[in-house]
Structures are given as C-alpha cells and as structure tokens.
Amino acid sequence: MKPQRIGISWAILPVTGWGIYGYQIIRYMSLKTRFIPVMLEDINLDVVDKLEATVVSRLTEKPLLQQPDGLIPFKNTGKRLPIPILHARGTGVQPQFADHSLGVIGSHNHALTFFENANIRKEESETYKRFASVTAGSTWNGEILKNAGVEKTSVIFQGVDPAQFHPAPKKGLFGDRFVIFAGGKMEYRKGQDIALAALKIFIERHPETLLLCIWDNQWPHSSAYRQFSNSPHLPSVPAPNARGHLQIDKWFEIFGLSRKHVYAFTNYPHRETQGLMREADVALFPNRCEGGTNLVAMETMACGIPTIISSNTGHLDIIHEGACIPLKSQSPVPSPEPGFDTTGWGESSVEEIVEQLEYVYQNRERAAEIGLRGAQRMHQLSWDRQVSQLLTFIEDHGLS
Q1: How many CA atoms, within 13 angstroms, populate the side-chain half-sphere of residue 288?
Q2: Is residue 198 part of a domain?
Q3: Domain containing residue 197: CATH number
Q4: Residues contacting residue 202 through CB under 8 Å, at least 6 positions apart
C-alpha cells in the first residue's frame, strides 16, 4: 500500500505535554505504520535518547528546514495542503504550539483536544464540527463535546512508555527520608497550593519528609497562573521576578518549607524523569482539573509509585480500584473568572491528603502493592496501543 503522508501542526518541544504526545505520534507513525509524519512546525527530539531520536528523525519529513516560508501561500487563504493534517487544540479551540502552520488547512483536518473550561460556546462547537474528526483526551472532555453537539468525537487517552516507565530499584539518594514526588505545570488547576497546604501539616508531624518536585510555568503571566488568586490557601500569589520567571522559592516560603524539606526542579529532561520518580515513596496529585488523564501521574503509576490522585475530570479515567489512592472528597470549585465553567472540577480536602499520606507512611508494604497494581494497569495503556487507536479512528474519518 502506498505510504500516506500526514501533517503534524504543533511544535514537538521536550518541555511540554503536547511535545511528548506529538513525539509519540510521529514515533509510532514512522516506525510501525505506512504513515509518514510531516512536521509543519519545529521539532526538537531532546525528549528521547539519541539513538531513537536519530532513527525517528530520518523517517520524519521536515519541509520547513528546506523551505522556511513554504507554508505562507497556505496561511488563511483557503488553499489546502494536499495532505491530511492533525491539529492540536486547547481551551476555546485555540491552536497549541503553532506558528508556521497557523491558518493552514489540509485535504482532511482532524483535531486532537484537551481543555479545562466546561463551557463550550456555540461558535466553538461550530469550529469543532468543521473538523473531519475530534479526539478528546478524557471521558470528561468527550462528554462535554458530545453534549455540545460535536458528534464525530472519540475519547482516546494518552499513554506511557513501559520501556521507560516501569518499576525498578531506587538509587537511595535520600537515605531513610520519606520522599513525596509531585509534578506538573505551576497553575491553579494543578493544585500545587493544595499540595503545599497538606505538606505543611504532614512535615510538622514527620520532619524527615522530603518533597521532590518538578514544578514550573514558563508563562507565569498567563491567566492559568493568575487564577491562583482564587486559592483558599494563599495570602497572595507569588509574582514573577523582574525577568518574568516563576519564583518557586517564594511558594515554599509561604508554607514555611525550607531547603531541607525540598528538592525542586523547574525543568528536568523527560527522558530521565523515571529515575527521579523512583526515589519517591509516594506521588501526590491533588489537581483541580485535568483535560487529559495527567501524563505525569500516569508515569508515576507506571513506575510502581503509589499515587494519591484527585477524583475529578480526566483523573477519573486512570483511577482503578486498588491501583492508586483516590482523593474522594471533592468540593465544587467556584469559577475563577467570568465565562469559565468549572463543572466537573474538584477541590481536594487537605485533611484527606494528610490522612492518605499518613496511610502510606505507616503502611509501606501495602502501599507498594498498590503501586505495583498501578504499574500493571498503566502498562495496558502503552503509547503504541493508544496511538494505534488514534490513527485507526482518524483513518476511519478520512485521510484521502
């Protein structure tokens, strides 16, 4: 069968969830199918090891390297590229990590979407309906789209790489300390304020506790970060510094945590995060909302780390009996700004988080069993399996 070229219209960057998702799509396409990925945006394969990056790069077309202005005749002109295109869309159906390909359409156009605002306005639903298909990253997102009348929608979760994320011995870098891992972009929906409020109490009980976290936000002036002003746990939101960077130390100061309590990273190579995760005794994700399934939480579970996780939105798709530790107390979250619908969001209980951390602290062997069941469950969601489902759905809705 003749190879089929498919355009990818968002940048593959190693520091973003979209970058990891996009890489796994082009990896599977290039290595295991007749599809040839065509990058319509920038690509940086630092997200993977050098050998794999070299192989995948050779099998991926990168036309902008030869002709940087090649897409200009197609931008907002109605003239179609002669190949189907996958488009990344976020809240408000906004293009994600797109520059060169903004306004470019293909022979067929398929949307992949993750969003946090449950309010799908009429003009947004009409935009979704113009795509040949829409793939939602969680059951919660899929139901919102279906209720808005977007019929050609399927729910397909992200995946994990079992070759990278699996149970393995820890290095023991922190001795007998009780280590809690947390990760994700620093923004209101991710609930770092909730986590720190709980950790303040827990560390007072167990001073040997250590928070090991990867928290950053390259856009601390964004509304997603400013929404922390709605937090019941913060007297004020730490402002960016003079260079516009997140001041992570200010966060720890607010909650009375010193350097001895924290190893914090604002960036960390994704290809190495499994080693960091395995140093932890437990992972904590009291997120208020996830449009997808929360890739970082999936990866900690895949590593066999007992994972405490809020029972709301996209998290519900990876919560399984005995495979994680769900935070069941979920209060409604008031809208953080006009027009923003938080139906389905959840405010986790600080007291329940402390209780579950205490359970893991006092029951290490039982918690480890939960971690192993979580790994078994996550390995059923391998990237190969999930991307295969994605491509089958897209092909069923038109590629040529």
Answers
A1: 28
A2: yes
A3: 3.40.50.2000
A4: 209, 354, 357, 358
Residues 220 and 136 in one domain: no
Quick: pLDDT tens for 253-285: 999 999 999 999 988 999 999 999 999 999 999
Structure tokens at 371: 């971690």
What pLDDT score was predicted for residue 47? 73
Residues 224 and 114 in one domain: no
Q: Which of 335, 347, 348, 346 is nearest to 119 (CA)?
A: 335
Same-domain pairing of 43 and 85: yes
- Strand order in 262-265's β-sheet? 262-265, 209-216, 178-185, 282-285, 307-310, 325-327
Q: What tokens were used for 165?
A: 């994320």
Tell me the residue range of the domain where 269 lies. Answer: 178-379
| Polymer length in residues for the chain | 400
Does this model's pTM top 0.85?
Answer: yes
Instruction: Classify burial at 2, counting beta carbons within 10 Å of its beta carbon; exposed 0-12, middle 13-18, buried 19 or more.
Output: exposed
- Split into its structural domains, the chain has a count of 2
In the chain, the amino acid numbered 266 is T
Under 8 Å between Cβ of 26 and 8: yes
- Decide if 196 is inside a domain: yes
Task: For residue 210, list its beta bridge partners.
Answer: 179
| pLDDT tens digit sequence for 315-344 | 999 999 999 999 999 999 999 999 999 999
> Are 130 and 205 part of one and the same domain?
no
Structural tokens at position 99: 């520059």
Whether 1 has a pLDDT exceeding 70, the answer reads no
Distant-in-sequence, close-in-space partners of 97: CB < 8 Å, separation ≥ 6: 10, 11, 13, 16, 18, 19, 41, 88
List phi, psi (to 5°) of 305.
-85, 125
Radius of gyration of the chain (CA): 21
Do 131 and 52 belong together in one domain?
yes
Q: Are residues 31 and 86 in the same domain?
A: yes
